[in-house]
Amino acid sequence: VLKFANECDAGIYYAWAQVLGGKDRGVYKVAMSVGWNPTFTDVKHKTIEPWILHDYAEDFYDCELRLIICGFVRPEMKFSFEDLVEAIRQDGEFCKEALDAPEVAALAKDSFFVRSEDAPAELAPTGKLRVALNMRNQ
Length: 138
Prior knowledge:
Elements: H1 2-7, E1 11-20, E2 27-35, E3 47-52, E4 64-75, H2 81-98, H3 102-105, E5 129-134
């Protein structure tokens, strides 16, 4: 995860995600920001902020988040607050559509995503990045 964060271009990405350890183990579409959040001046470190485009019934703190990052949308940009809200909405819509492309949609069924409690994860598909993050309540 750290290598990806340090080496990737800052911007918006589309991805697939699964939360392990919670009740809802579905694989869902993601719009993800990676960067310095230039609209806000108090950010001191590069961040990875996945927006899972799904409404969960409960929080999933202390669970593992698995991501397959599929593509780059656009570079990071500084916005006014109002323009940022609109850009986030547009990015979400773009990511939803991009993840419907057959070659990308197929990754939602990748073996990296666990189908049962004891199913092992396998290697990443060539050319795609798979990340496992442990979400901690801070």
